[in-house]
Amino acid sequence: MQHIHFVSILAFVAVGATLPARAACEADGKAEFICGMKSPEDLAHVPGSDWIIVSGMADAQSHRGQLYAVNTRDKSFQSIYPLASSEPKHDRRLYTACPGPLRNGEFGAHGIDVKLGRNGIHTLYAVNHAGRESFEVFELNATGGRPPVLTWIGCVIYPAGTSGNGIVALPDGGIATTNFKDPADTNAFQKMTAGEITGNVLEWHPHKGWTTIPESAMSGANGIVVTPDGKSLYVAGWPGKNVTRFERGAASPKRETIATGILTDNLRWMADGSILAGGQDGNMPGVFQCRPPECRIGSAAVKIDPRTQKATRIATYAGSEGFEGATTSLEVGKEIWMGSFRGERILRLPAQ
């Protein structure tokens, strides 16, 4: 989901403090929650661990988003970036053009991805909208069974006219990212409602810079995943309620579009090789016009089989006072976890 101006309902969470699941965070039927994370927009597994990284979006007033680590066993969490004690370690070889760390704790967290490393040391990529349109890069240390530790190591500035949304590490060492819209385009959401083109899909490679994937122009390009062989990208078309497969490396890549029935936001791989699409169970422009408690934005998770291109809804939630408008879905054991661009809860549902 693109960054949206809203008033956060979350009181300040002490930086670095580990918080247990709140007793007041009551279940709603089969729906359970983890409460206390500010606007938990995207979720990603830390490989080989019990931890999930969550991007807490910045609100329009403070421009201070956060990255959290959630323990899947006891559902506790803590803020892991930004921290006053964290010292940057700029990798100037890979990120030569990066002007340096974000200043004064500003961080406009959005889409994230974790690239598998060795011996518990991985790389985290996080789309940022505070101070600059960029993706920020972190070393992620998940060794020793402790909560992950992040060390900022660099950034890449997006091309002019680009507002990043989803991001994914590529097997060949680069990244692919979606350009949701031109940040200067005040009519972008009206264009999305009409199904008009607002962005595309980009790749960045060290020492090569930015390129645009041919034939990737689309309306509201959102979440993104890459196949393990690196040959195909799957990209969420948010207003079009679809997911499109793009071939990489072809001058005129083949496009295949799969209808999802939801405003398709972030994408994640499932254990069985399917793609899990999360998003809002509603329509444009109603997702912006809905004002609780008069109405609530529903949430849904859709499972996509890449071989058959069949999309099957596996989780649905109508919404409640604490949670609505899911932006991501993640398979966690036998549950589906959902984050949202608003509020302060992660939703946990049994997979159907």
Brief characterization of the structure:
The chain has 352 residues and is an all-beta fold. It has 2 helices and 25 strands. The longest helix is centred in the middle third of the chain and has 6 residues, at 188-193.
Key structural traits:
352 residues, mainly beta, 5-stranded antiparallel sheet, 4-stranded antiparallel sheet, 2 helices, 25 strands, 3% helix
Report what the structure shows:
The chain is built from 2 helices and 25 strands. The chain has 352 residues and is mainly β. It has a domain of 87 residues. The strands form 6 sheets. A 5-stranded antiparallel beta sheet has the order 1-6-5-4-3, with no helix packed on it. Strands 2-25-24-23 form a 4-stranded antiparallel beta sheet, with no helix packed on it. A 4-stranded antiparallel beta sheet has the order 7-8-9-10, with no helix packed on it. Strand 17 and strand 18 form a beta hairpin. The N terminus is likely disordered.
